[in-house]
Amino acid sequence: MTGLSGWVHVAAGGALLAGLPTAARAQIVPPKLSSADSAHRADFYIARAPFRIYGNTYFVGTQGLSAILITSDSGDVLIDGTVAEAAGQILANIRQLGFDPRNVKLILNSHTHYDHAGGIAAIQRVTGAAVAASPWSARVLAAGHSLPGDPQFGIVDPFPAVANVRVLADGEVMRVGPIALTAHFTPGHTPGGTSWTWRSCEAGRCLDLVYADSQTPAAADGFLFTNNSSYPQALQDFAHGLSVISDLPCDILLTAHPGVSRLWERLAARDSGNADALIDGGACKRMVEEARHQIAKRVARERVEPPAPAEAVPTHDSFTVRSRILKEARLINVHTPRGYSATRGPRLPVLYMPDGGIDEDFPHVVNTVDSLIALGRIRPVIVVGIPNTQRRRDLTGPTRIASDSAIAPSVGGSAAFRRFISDELFPAIDRRYRVTHERSIVGESLAGLFIVETFLRAPDLFQHYIAFDPSLWWNKGALTDSVRAFAKRMDDRPRALFVAGSSDGIPGTTVFADSLRAARPRRLDFTYSERADLVHPTIFRGSAPAALVQALK
Known about the structure:
The protein has 553 residues and is an alpha/beta fold. It is built from 17 helices and 20 strands. An 8-stranded mixed β-sheet has the order 13-14-16-15-17-18-19-20, sandwiched between helices. The longest helix has 20 residues, at 283-302. Mean pLDDT is 89; it is low at 1-25.
């Protein structure tokens, strides 16, 4: 058991009160949200009046995010800080309940994403409270952004870093006066996820409360719970944590996202006269069963197709372009179809592809193209593969988001990579091969992001654009938000765009497709294929044949 004596310092006097928001200043000002973000994040920033849950336990969060206050005469405990923009609202909610924020002596956390840890630093500064977290979460809180190993690393927003975080042990009991909260490590959603239990009493009746951390298998593009090197024990961690939650004494279930535990429906029932509407001894077990179902679905989707056998390396030429634009030598792989002659015969269109290394997507694309040519479904085409040197540098545009910038030593180089293709690679291919000026480009994930960006910023560079699960989350969906402005600049030259989205890429790809259709660019042949039956690792193989036939028939 651990009390606060010896490691918490609470400032005295009125200096900290200067940081407390007044009612007029306690409004939540949300950040600018992209169209893709607004569908599921808007309620994070909607203020909610605080209320008593049971006994000395209160809700002080927002409509879409929980923050829980547990009070005593000796000091109070706060679990979670929601988003940074709502820190002032949480403090105002505490005051509205009649409590002094300076009495908050301890701040705890469920998991360290911006929507649950974002407000902790500001609340800590105002209250002087100690902060305690699991070992993984303590590192992330100190950094102010997620770290490799988080299934959502690279796509979750950063947040204000937190100073002086105490590291907890699994099962440790944290005490503030008579309040005793037990930490239960329940990782999976993140490697540091923590659920909390305590008892609250009202009119002589004491109940067991559970604050369960998120148990959803959410992940960034390309992360597989069934096969990854950064968090290989994720599924085992989920299984362990769910067993822990299932076995907890659980009279009242609270969750990091209140909707998961149907808090608002239960609260409405209580307000309508059912005094025990928040009490449900089976809620934890039902939550666990639902989480197991969602994880099983995710695993099944990842295993929808068995791992593909290694592709045979197709015949190809390789040469090097010494790029003055990129200041490096770039290897280029080129496959010509059967019957191609460098000296006679028709000139052929060219299909360009980032991720074009022999150990990348080049063998699969070439073999698919060759089979489609043999079947008479597409015209003969030359395939040009561009192997990666710094993939995340070349395939991403500028970003204002710190967590985007954290994914690689260098990002935001798409404009230079595009100039390399147009000014150095195109002329090199034109000199070496009998080609027409009909050019197509194909790719997935970050390569898909580059393709969509190129379609919007340089629409005349290619005639056919094919993007599978493009990483449209980049820079908070700025490309999707800018579709209308770019579409207005397009001239009457014909061009085609094919976008496919898997269950992992939806709704981002759907929002993009809707935005592009609404913009109505002139003479654009646009196809959007929503493939909820596929996942990110299978979208390329599942959609490439149809996309190539449409572009090159």
